[in-house]
Design a protein that fits this description.
The structure is a homodimer.
Chain A: E1 3-6, E2 10-16, E3 19-26, H1 28-36, E4 42-49, H2 54-62, E5 66-73, E6 78-83, E7 92-97, H3 110-113, E8 117-120, H4 125-134, E9 141-144, H5 148-153, H6 155-164, E10 167-171, H7 172-179, H8 184-193, E11 198-202, E12 208-212, E13 216-219, H9 233-248, H10 253-270, H11 284-298
Parallel strand pairs in A: 1-4, 1-8, 2-6, 4-5, 8-9, 9-10, 10-11
Antiparallel strand pairs in A: 2-3, 6-7, 11-12, 12-13
Chain lengths: ~300, ~300
């Protein structure tokens, strides 16, 4: 197993301008692992209730995801309901039921504790910290995600977590909220000072931007004719990004750049259908073709010896 | 003269979080021509009042801009005042004084009417149409810009104008407003149906996106540590974009892609200082260096024979 993810596994009820779904499989760990599973072996740590559907467990397994760390306990699976009717980029939460997540205390098997790559998907920061502490040795690369709620109610433990990771993935609005910097490069600079060597700022339909001490990289979003359901786009991005890096072992600047485009590729698929429908049924050809579309979307002729700018 | 621009020449009073300026030289034609002048010979058509400063005329001339079409008439120069205090991306207009622009009726010299490239910068659409009709033959490429005001109060003539240009540059919000399409690729598709072969959607700090029947291209914005004054960013983009295309004569897909990066380069300089301060004092080295920074900002390894994605 190359990459371990801890995060939420949920049943979501969601409504978008394109329709609605009741109790569809979701959660940060679900989107991340299915996305990453196209590239590498993933182990998932989380908790679900007795109501969790067998077919969903089998779907993870069919993607080669190691679910030995997914505890099934008495009670109901975490549930979220919301809509994107006003603004396709912003969820309005109707209800969050923590259910079995209220008592979740992750504990890692020996195999999971030795994973060389670790993604701490969005859950309560103290749980993310606990998983990081349970690792038997420092992974080659640790990344984490978070959400506005934890900035509001758990800032000290979130700040501690961020100080201990290599890569932070965070939404644009959350980066502003956390740093109190309106201007994004300034927010990224503040975040870099607090610990991570790379900050990935997710900008929804505008793509993602990587900031580090050594380089910046801008990954656009793919211009889709229609966004059906934006739920899980960020976690699908992280799954492609970290899945690519874990599969190649390439944590260099080149690896991070290419990983961000793989992440954008996976995010673009995620939002094309409700829930995991699209990213769980992708072929290798689908992924290669969309990656190549990103090459086309961004390429232009650089300056070289015979091809300078026509400057006066 | 390679490219003709018609648009506003103005004295702006502007306040941003970085300071304020009274009566600084501005207007769509000013930003466009100074930006384009780094690449090619520009002719400017517009009108100013008797209060227009000699030093400003000399600044244009020092950039090799042909101001024989800039009429100096009785009255005061167009004036705009506004601020970007609430949101650095959105101007709040305090006052607009049309002054000499109220009676402006552009008329082209023989030389100007034969220009091979034409940019119809933001002014009243019927004036843009009039200039297009005054051209002695169809230019190789015609582009136009506009603003929300004309969508509100002059939609029929704006629609007629758009149907007659090759390239439309338009802000994201205006594209949504004009088409009533919330989703940007859909808005671009609607705009392409109405006439232009390429639509350039300007997204401020998110960069610009080119849409055509044949290809899409995403140009990021340069991640600046500080935006001092966003006034004129769109016109500076257009100046770099059209200036590059006019200088090379390359209206192919490759020319448009590279032109968009040149445009983003010039826009990134424009917002670094108040008014025209930065873009009027750029060296060739400044421009080349920033263009190369865009190469670094966007490059990643594509798929080739020996370098596929690690797909399972």
């Amino acid at each position: 197993m190359k990459i371990l993810v801890v995060g939420s596994v949920a049943y979501d009820s969601v409504e978008t301008p394109e329709g609605k779904r009741e109790s569809q499989l979701g959660g940060s760990a679900s989107y991340f692992s299915v996305s990453a599973s196209h590239f590498t072996e993933v182990g998932m740590v989380g908790v679900v209730g007795k109501d969790f559907r067998d077919e969903d467990l089998r779907m993870y397994e069919s993607h080669g995801i190691d679910i030995s760390g997914l505890n099934v306990v008495d009670g109901r699976t975490f549930r979220w309901s919301g809509d994107y009717l006003q603004d396709i980029n912003t969820a309005v939460t109707h209800e969050t039921q923590l259910n079995v997540f209220a008592e979740f205390a992750p504990s890692l098997s020996e195999k999971h504790a030795a994973a060389p790559f670790l993604f701490l998907a969005n859950i309560e920061p103290s749980l993310q910290l606990r998983v990081l502490e349970e690792m038997s040795s420092r992974p080659k690369l640790v990344a984490c995600d978070t959400m506005n709620l934890w900035i509001d109610i758990a800032r000290p433990s979130l700040a501690e977590l961020i100080s201990k990771v290599d890569i932070l993935t965070i939404n644009e609005g959350e980066a502003r909220q956390f740093t109190d910097e309106e201007h994004l490069p300034s927010a990224a600079a503040e975040l870099l000072k607090t610990g991570p060597s790379t900050v990935v700022i997710k900008r929804g339909e505008y793509g993602a931007a990587l900031f580090s001490d050594k380089f910046n990289f801008a990954a656009p979003a793919y211009p889709l004719a229609k966004v059906v359901d934006p739920t899980g786009a960020g976690d699908s991005f992280a799954g492609g990004f970290m899945g690519y890096i874990a599969a190649t072992g390439d944590t260099s600047e080149e690896g991070l750049r290419r990983g961000a485009i793989v992440g954008s590729t996976m995010a673009s698929f995620a939002v094309e259908s409700f829930g995991l429908e699209r990213i769980r049924s992708l072929s290798r050809e689908d992924i290669e073709e969309r990656f190549k579309a990103f090459v086309e979307l961004t390429r232009f002729q650089p300056i070289d010896g015979s091809n300078g700018l026509p400057l006066r």
